[in-house]
Amino acid sequence: MLLKNIAQVLLPAASLVNAQFSIGTYTSLVGGLDTNSSLLGNYYNYWIKSTSGIWDLTRSALEPTTSTGVYTIPCHGSRKNITIEASRSALVIIDMQNFFLHPGLSPKADAGRGVVSATVNMITGFRKAGVKVLWTNWGLDNYDLITMPPAFLDGFSNNHSSTTTFGSDMGIVPGTNISAGAKLMRGSWNARPYGPLYDLQVEGVKSGTDLYFNKNRLSGLWGAQTPLGLYLQENEITTLFFGGVNADQCVWGTFLDAYYKGFDIVFVEDIAATTSPYYATQMVVYNANLDSFLANSTEILPAVS
Ligand SMILES: *[C@@H]1O[C@H](CO)[C@@H](O)[C@H](O)[C@H]1NC(C)=O
Ligand SMILES: *[C@@H]1O[C@H](CO)[C@@H](O)[C@H](O)[C@H]1NC(C)=O
Ligand SMILES: *[C@@H]1O[C@H](CO)[C@@H](O)[C@H](O)[C@H]1NC(C)=O
Ligand SMILES: *[C@@H]1O[C@H](CO)[C@@H](O)[C@H](O)[C@H]1NC(C)=O
Ligand SMILES: *[C@@H]1O[C@H](CO)[C@@H](O)[C@H](O)[C@H]1NC(C)=O
């Protein structure tokens, strides 16, 4: 039924090259998989579920996979193992910034600080595997301040006042001599990656394994297009692994937009955390189980490092 519908949608374009276009012709486009019910999607964008339960996300009929960059990774949601192509995948790290994680600015973020070392391991492993690391962080400019809706200005203020919201001087970080800078403005100390992640990010961007994207909402993929979205589109990246803080807010927001925009999404449980109550994490894990792939770094790493 699905294939038939897709075939109908594709018919006008396909008939340009083949007047005899039929469902069989269409499925044969994906490499002789006629009547293969484990095929989901179309030539340009599809998964294959093998009889052994592995979901092949590589779209390798469209563009052959490299022999060195293909990995089968365990997942433990409703869908189990996945096969990915390194150059078509990316690790998206959301908001692991001083603002959200430094003890002086965010004393309650123990869970977030607790996933830093797993995040470092994941980044190191994915870099070795040739998977791009995409730092996606709050990093506002003056245009963002002008166009920021009141709900966000209020939500990020300390006392429901414009004097303490985005762009306001955060003063000295409690317990340090560090000047935190303007709240979540790009280039400020508070908007930098936290602790060891800062050096890791600088080094990765310098060597080209990592990229850094500023965002101006919880989601790094909202609206018509964002810097992160444009990069993914131009580089034909289809499979995204997610980690960061807060799991139920900025990670979840970006994760959902990625899902809505058609990326394969893998929620990596043990590199994501939140300051929200426990049920917020439960909601995220429950839904990641249903709608995407759920993994954790300790399981993935042996496969890719
Ligand atoms: C469907 O395609 C997969 C992947 O190429 C293959 O392993 C499987 O045997 C096919 N199934 C059938 C029924 O042709
Ligand atoms: C699938 O993942 C499980 C762990 O979740 C692992 O034990 C198994 O070997 C994997 N299978 C394949 C074919 O990779
Ligand atoms: C909010 O806090 C700032 C900084 O402490 C202060 O200057 C301002 O008067 C406060 N505004 C309100 C409405 O409480
Ligand atoms: C702040 O700087 C002074 C002078 O460099 C130093 O003695 C002091 O220990 C610093 N305090 C903190 C909390 O880092
Ligand atoms: C990691 O994977 C195992 C299953 O292999 C699971 O039991 C565990 O809850 C997962 N999550 C975390 C955060 O470790």
Automatic annotation (TrEMBL):
GO terms for molecular function: hydrolase activity. Keywords: Hydrolase, Signal. It holds the Pfam family Isochorismatase. CDD domains: cysteine_hydrolases. Residues 89-280 form the Isochorismatase-like domain. InterPro entries: Isochorismatase-like_dom, Isochorismatase-like_hydrls, Isochorismatase-like_sf. The keyword Nucleus does not apply. Residues 1-19 form the signal peptide. SUPFAM superfamilies: Isochorismatase-like hydrolases (SSF52499). PANTHER family: FAMILY HYDROLASE, PUTATIVE (AFU_ORTHOLOGUE AFUA_2G08700)-RELATED (PTHR43540:SF9), PEROXYUREIDOACRYLATE/UREIDOACRYLATE AMIDOHYDROLASE-RELATED (PTHR43540). This is Isochorismatase hydrolase. It comes from Hyaloscypha bicolor E.
